[in-house]
Amino acid sequence: MPDTPILQVENLSKFFPVQRGLFRRTVGHVKAVNDVTFTVNKGECVGLVGESGCGKTTVARCLLRLVEPDQGRILLHSEQQTFDIASASRKEMLDVRRQMQIIFQDPFSSLDPRWRVTDVIAEPLIAQKIGRAEASRRVLEILPTVGLGAHFADRFPHELSGGERQRVSIARALVVSPPLVVADEPVSALDVSVRSQIINLLLDLQSQMNLTYVFIAHDLSIVKHISHRIAVMYLGRLVELGTTQQVFEECKHPYTKALLASVLIPDPTHREQSYVLEGEVPSPLNPPSGCHFSTRCPFAQEQCSAEEPDLRDMGNGHLVRCHFAEDLDLSEGVFALPLATSSASA
Amino acid sequence: MPDSQPILEVLDLHVHFKMLAGVVRAVDGVNFTVERGRCLGIVGESGCGKSVTARSILRLLHSSQTSGQILYHPNGDDEPIDLVNLDPRGDAIRAIRGKDIAMIFQEPMTSLTPVYTIGEQIMESIRQHQNLSEEEAQELAISMLNKVGIPDAERRFADYPHQMSGGMRQRVMIAIALCCEPRVLIADEPTTALDVTIQAQILRLIRSLQQDLDMSVIMITHDLSVIAQLADFVVVMYLGQMAEKAPVVELFQNPKHPYTQALLRSIVRPDTPPREQLHTISGSVPDPRNAPSGCRFRNRCPSVHDRCLEDPPVVEFGPQHTATCWLYVDD
User: Fold this and answer.
1) pLDDT tens track of chain B, all 331 residues?
2) Domains contained in chain B, number
3) Exposed e or buried b for every residue in B39-48, given b needs 16+ CB within 10 A?
4) Is residue B330 in a domain?
5) Whole-angstrom distance, CA of residue B278 vs CA of residue A195
6) Interatomic CA distance for residues B282 and B77, integer angstroms
7) Residue A8 C-alpha, separation from nearest chain B C-alpha, in angstroms
8) Whether residue A283 sits in one domain with residue A162
9) Which of A45, B66, B159, B248 sits at 20 to 30 Å (Cα–Cα) from B148?
10) Is A337 helix (H, G, I), strand (E, B) or coil?
11) Strand pairing class (B216-221; B39-43)
């Protein structure tokens, strides 16, 4: 497909102030999202991965302007015009929301228990000043597309299973026919047997309605399955960005490698874990100097804690934030070695 | 395995809850054996009864009706103790609970009390079960914190749970469970709330402690990858019943029950072709209050048959491999 950008995120930052004491003095900032730049092309699915606290959900919320970004631009290209979401007015945001919708993680808390399914799905239409009658007609139209019968319209969320609720959330997002959908952990709260149904549904809808996805998840197998391109975040920074092939097969950042290595393989005859990352994600309030990953990186050199590496293009749009991206040998055997030596010396 | 000895036998366990809407048969006829030094995995989706099974072993469910036998063999030759017959509030079970059989709960965020330091919470368990002085207990607690990989344990000893991350709290839970060197560790979804890198650390920790202490582990999870990595023997549960049980390699290579087969097909593997349709199980897990009669999986089963309206038989497929299904019975 020709790469027409639909969403361009440029130098997006969001710092949350940390306030302490009687007068709520600001004592520091959590750099939840720090200078993140990426582009989403029409019709593709971009996966956003990272551990909790890496800022992936904050990116999603900034995209929808559910939190106010501090810096940067978020350009959304629609057929008629281009919006800068970061500085759009309330009136413009109404148009933006016709172009972009979000599916939330937890279908148990994202649906109002007192609203019927039809009211939940119709709400975006009502917000777009579409009449009640037309809205209910559109609700009945969208229900079968997400695999729910018309009789679901009058039900309350407590009458639905987790999978059905998530289908309602998807219908709610798609009812205004947005070209772009942000899905924030859409399957992680679901049972295993239902999870694959929802992934299939998301894939079907993408090809039927020509949707573009920003797909946020911590389950790497699912992200790999659904995404064309993947962005890896660590402590508010983008550390690697590339096609699924580049990130999974030819990854150049030690953090990406460690993430991939900690994915459990569903095969009892393959039990050796090549590498287990030591330690935990440092506090985002006080991230390590230089490269944020340097405190946990098995290859860290002096330069790493002194200087923060830039995001560099390693060819064919494969971006990596590491001083030594060219030199590191991240193949299985070599990568397993630092573990053996470090645990022996500890 | 000729030298395998059972440490815990669960025989025909039923746990029912009386509710206004009727009786919920949360666990309905479950049988399994935990061997010394081995890991038994119990896998299933929400509502399958895996957590209820675990809690009934420790007699933590007061409002339930429990029948069947849970035989605990403290020593090889002695008479086993039937935990079902013990008073859930009595001294006999309290001597076992936390000492011989310990449990790690699912949410590290809610299962520690916020008003005591983690040191006090570990020492509570030590002082309850071991005749140690305050200083000795503190020493043991700190050495446990070191063992589970908490850096700077002496200082963290005085921390409150809110000062620790999720992974650290889960390690504290493990330290509390292990401080009396239990014979059996029940781990109820110990890594579900954690990130992948921390999950890998915790699973490696459980595995190495299992070997060091020659401990038996009951690993309860919905995640077949965790089972594949840790369990020696697996019980698959669906809506309170046992669908299949088998040694782990056998289960993954030769699953017999349609539910096990469907579960294994529906997981995304490293070699699943990208963006292709995944195998699914139709429908969703029914409400346990209106579980179908006969085979409880029949509404979702691709091989459903008239016979499935009646309770399915247990069919044997070789040593220790059984599935509860009509599919393998000739008319």
Assistant:
1) 445 789 999 999 999 998 887 888 999 999 999 999 999 999 998 889 999 999 999 999 888 899 999 999 987 677 899 999 999 999 999 999 999 999 998 877 788 999 999 999 999 999 999 999 999 999 999 998 988 888 889 999 999 999 888 888 988 999 999 899 899 999 999 888 788 888 888 888 889 889 988 899 999 999 999 999 999 999 999 999 999 999 999 999 999 999 999 999 998 888 889 999 999 998 888 888 888 999 999 999 999 999 999 999 999 999 899 999 999 998 7
2) 1
3) bbbbbbbbbb
4) no
5) 10
6) 48
7) 24
8) no
9) B248
10) helix
11) parallel
Best to test chain A binding among B204, B278, B285 (most A CBs inside 10 Å): B278
Q: What is the CATH number of the domain that holds B53?
A: 3.40.50.300
Tally of CB atoms within 10 A around A47: 25
Distance in Å, alpha carbon of A39 to nearest chain B alpha carbon: 21
- In this structure, the answer to whether residues A295 and A217 fall within a common structural domain is no
Complex ipTM tops 0.90:
no
A19 and A58 together in one domain: yes
Domain co-membership, A105 together with A140: yes
Classify residue A268: in a domain, yes or no.
yes
Type of residue numbered B290: N
A222/B268 Cβ within 8 A:
yes
Pair A200, A303 in one domain: no
Q: Which residues in chain A are contacts of B204 at CB distance < 8 A?
A: 273, 276
Does A275 lie in the same domain as A220? no
How many domains does chain A fold into? 2
A190/A276 same-domain check: no
User: Is A276 close to B197, i.e. CB distance below 8 A?
Assistant: yes
Q: Is A343 touching B (CB cutoff 8 A)?
A: no
- Residue B170 lies inside a defined structural domain of this protein: no
Cβ pair A244:B274 closer than 8 A: yes
Name the phi and psi angles at A57, rounded to 5: -70, -35
- Please report, for the domain that includes residue A69, its CATH number: 3.40.50.300
Contacts with A225 from chain B: Cβ below 8 Å: 268, 272, 274-275, 278
How many angstroms separate the Cα of B143 from the Cα of each of A2, B111, B118, B119, B171? 60, 22, 13, 11, 13
Instruction: Give the minimum alpha-carbon distance from B78 to chain A in angstroms, rounded to a whole number.
Output: 34
A56–chain B Cβ distance below 8 A for any pair: no
Cβ-defined contact of B284 to A194 (cutoff 8 Å):
yes
Q: CA of B120, closest CA in chain A: separation in Å?
A: 24
CA distance A47 to chain B (A): 13
Structural domain for B87, as ranges = 6-100+182-321
- Quick check: is B138 in a domain? no
Picking from B196, B249, B279, the nearest residue to A196 by CB comes out as: B279
Residues A265 and A220 in one domain: no
Q: Specify if A235 maps to a domain.
A: no
Does residue B89 come out as left (phi exceeding 0), alpha (psi in the -120 to 50 range) or beta?
A: alpha
Task: Report how far apart, in Å, the C-alpha atoms of B48 and of each of A160, B39, B44, B174, B297 are.
Answer: 18, 20, 6, 25, 11
Instruction: State whether A224 and B204 contact (CB < 8 Å).
Output: no
Contact between chains at B200 and A277 (C-beta distance less than 8 A):
yes
Structural domain span for residue A271: 249-345
Q: Which residues of B touch A265 (CB under 8 A)?
A: 225, 228-229, 269-270
Candidates A91, A71, A47, A51; CA nearest to A242 is A47
Domain endpoint, select from A175, A196, A227: A227
A266 with B267: Cβ contact below 8 A: yes
Q: Which two tokens stand for residue B220?
A: 């309860």
